[in-house]
Amino acid sequence: MKLARRRPGASWRWRAGWHGQARSVPSPNVGVRPVGVAIDLAVVHSISLPPGRYGSDAIERLFTNRLDPQAHPAFAEVAGLQVSAHFVIRRDGALLQFVALQGRAWHAGVSHWKGRDNCNDHSIGIELEGLEGRRFAAAQYRALAQLLRQLGRVLPLREVVGHEHVAPGRKRDPGPGFDASRLRRRLRGSGLVLAWMTPK
């Protein structure tokens, strides 16, 4: 997969699929995308480890297969999972990147969107640090909108969906605490369509 040609003034933002201002934490949980696939979907998730607690390095440890199942009772059931996302946005808006854009992160699982299965093949996974159904921080909306606009400069992104949209009944994140109208205002003029505003 080739990234689109960079626009003038955007050269500092991406380096071989890595965001120039994100903290890079490469994950081993990555695959190869199908040949010729267009990365046209962004999937928004929510995650916090332990649930409802923020600011630890547990998410990084989970995505790099280093989470100690003995460190907290909530870690026992997830420590053995091999999962990842392209990005994590912390509560303060700080950006972490685990997988290069051209890599296939393991974030959506069994999924389907508008006639296509296996959304990992053609999507970018973005995790918001937060508890499913709870509210997210203002800094996260700013960082998410900025990231989506920057992604749109190098990828043919068309839609932004929640994990709940591509895996209904199985996943419910980011949930009702996610203010899609707030993100929509910040993305005005970007050309991106939010699943929260349109029928599936």
From TrEMBL:
Places the protein is found: Cytoplasm
Cofactor: Zn(2+)
Keyword Cell wall biogenesis/degradation: yes
Top-level class of the enzyme under EC nomenclature: hydrolase
SUPFAM superfamilies, alphabetized: N-acetylmuramoyl-L-alanine amidase-like (SSF55846)
InterPro entries from the UniProt entry: Amidase/PGRP_sf (IPR036505), Amidase_domain (IPR002502), NAMLAA_amidase_2 (IPR051206)
A Pfam family reported for this protein in Swiss-Prot or TrEMBL: Amidase_2
GO-annotated cellular components: cytoplasm
Protein name according to UniProt: 1,6-anhydro-N-acetylmuramyl-L-alanine amidase AmpD
Naturally occurring in which organism (per UniProt): Sphaerotilus mobilis
